[in-house]
């Protein structure tokens, strides 16, 4: 294997799931793994895999055994070693604390709440834009624009340029494939370069004239007694723009998919009682959200009954943990009244718990609230076949479109 390819962990080569539908609905395979091989070693890639809730949680929490300092990953994004000083996701406590503190100010529930009116009015505007149509694509009209406009506003990047940074982050989040590795790596390198060149002058401007946004906070922030360099701020900005839009788009798309196909009666229930919407959002994160995280084994261990060697990689199959019957009764059913569904691990756990969780939850909730108020019904477009609407993503497949009928 070439050195560069060895850095990437190829998920499909572990699951061996071939068709798009299987990759979109890998839940039967997860169940089989939980029952038959809950701790599974893949010799081809030298990677351990854990599928049970308790194991996944342990991997995420225990940074002494399972470290975020890693060379290999599911999604190696091109970057230089020396601009990694402020990368919040590639270090462990205690170093992690100061890097995270740089960003966390912007993401406290209080500062997110200050953004609420702006997010609500954007959501209302997007939903109102559907008026007069009977068939619309939820992904194109709602799930893509809301998160990207919001994160651009928060950072202080012109949201009119969103098509540009959407295209770059799509490429950066592309999954690797063995046969296309060099092509994909080259595309990612190019996208990263263009993204940096785009953000650089914006960051310089913030340094000259700081305003009330995240990039301005970052140019003024200090890490271990030193200001961040312009390059470091650019890198953080790219990380947030990427994290802030791709995954929230998936949450919104999957939420609509679940209302259409997993539990169609839920829409009328939400119409009657909109206070149930946050519960639906939480349950979708548990039930229909493909997430996996990787860690490096930091010291030899037998915590899971097998000999894991220092330096090997572990994949925590979060989406499998979220369907573990030992943790969630009738886990294979979408149930918005479930008690304790907030214990899902879709946002991770422990020191690296997702900083954007309150923002993602808020966006999905406000958007659906606005939608439910306006439309009396939503149903799948005629003859909709899911495999025609999927696209490969790091953790399997995501919806690239979702055509629905809407009724005022
Ligand atoms: C539905 C949407 C989202 C999901 C499911 C999600 C999921 C996750 C997960 C699983 C982690 C843990 C990574 C690890 O353990 O190594 C994480 C970390 C992170 N997320 Fe999110 N995320 C979402 C939205 C967002 C948004 C909107 C933002 C920012 C605008 C964001 C920013 C971050 C950051 C900065 C980290 C790194 C935290 C750290 O390493 O300390 N996320 N996210």
From TrEMBL:
Residues 76-95 are annotated as: Disordered. Coiled coil: none annotated. The keyword Heme applies. PROSITE patterns: CYTOCHROME_P450. GO terms for molecular function: heme binding; iron ion binding; monooxygenase activity; oxidoreductase activity, acting on paired donors, with incorporation or reduction of molecular oxygen. Keywords: Heme, Iron, Metal-binding, Monooxygenase, Oxidoreductase. Signal peptide: none annotated. The keyword Iron applies. CDD domains: P450_EryK-like. Belongs to the cytochrome P450 family. This is Cytochrome P450. It comes from Baia soyae.
């Amino acid at each position: 294997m070439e050195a560069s390819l060895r850095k990437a962990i190829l998920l499909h080569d572990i699951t061996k799931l071939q068709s798009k539908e299987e990759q979109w609905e890998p839940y039967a395979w997860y169940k089989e793994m939980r029952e038959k091989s809950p701790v599974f070693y893949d010799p081809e890639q030298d990677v351990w895999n854990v599928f049970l809730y308790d194991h996944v949680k342990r991997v995420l929490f225990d940074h002494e055994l399972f470290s975020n300092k890693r060379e290999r990953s599911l999604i190696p994004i091109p970057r230089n070693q020396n601009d990694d000083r402020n990368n919040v996701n590639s270090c462990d406590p205690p170093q992690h604390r100061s890097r995270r503190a740089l960003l966390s100010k912007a993401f406290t529930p209080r500062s997110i709440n200050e953004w609420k009116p702006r997010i609500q009015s954007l959501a209302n505007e997007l939903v109102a834009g559907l008026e007069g149509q009977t068939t619309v694509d939820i992904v194109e009209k709602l799930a893509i624009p809301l998160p990207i406009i919001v994160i651009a506003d928060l950072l202080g990047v012109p949201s009119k340029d969103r098509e540009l940074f959407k295209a770059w982050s799509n490429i950066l989040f592309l999954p690797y494939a063995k046969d296309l590795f060099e092509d994909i790596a080259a595309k990612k390198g190019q996208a990263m370069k263009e993204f940096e060149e785009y953000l650089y002058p914006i960051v310089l401007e913030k340094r000259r004239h700081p305003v009330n946004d995240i990039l301005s906070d970052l140019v003024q922030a200090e890490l271990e007694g030193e200001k961040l360099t312009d390059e470091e701020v650019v890198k953080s900005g790219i990380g947030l723009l990427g994290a802030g839009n791709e995954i929230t788009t998936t949450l919104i798309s999957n939420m609509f998919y679940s209302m259409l196909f997993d539990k169609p009666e839920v829409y009328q229930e939400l119409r009657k009682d909109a206070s149930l919407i946050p519960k639906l959002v939480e349950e979708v994160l548990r039930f229909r959200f493909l997430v996996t995280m990787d860690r490096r084994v930091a010291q030899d261990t037998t915590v899971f009954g097998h000999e894991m060697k220092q330096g090997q990689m572990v994949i925590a199959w979060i989406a499998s943990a979220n369907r573990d019957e030992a943790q969630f009764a009738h886990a294979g059913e979408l149930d918005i009244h479930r008690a304790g569904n907030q214990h899902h691990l879709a946002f991770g756990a422990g020191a690296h718990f997702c900083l954007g969780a309150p923002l993602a939850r808020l966006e999905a909730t406000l958007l659906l609230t606005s939608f439910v108020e306006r439309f009396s019904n939503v149903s799948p477009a005629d003859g909709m076949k899911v495999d025609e609407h999927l696209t490969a993503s790091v953790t399997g497949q995501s919806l690239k479109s979702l055509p629905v009928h809407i009724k005022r």
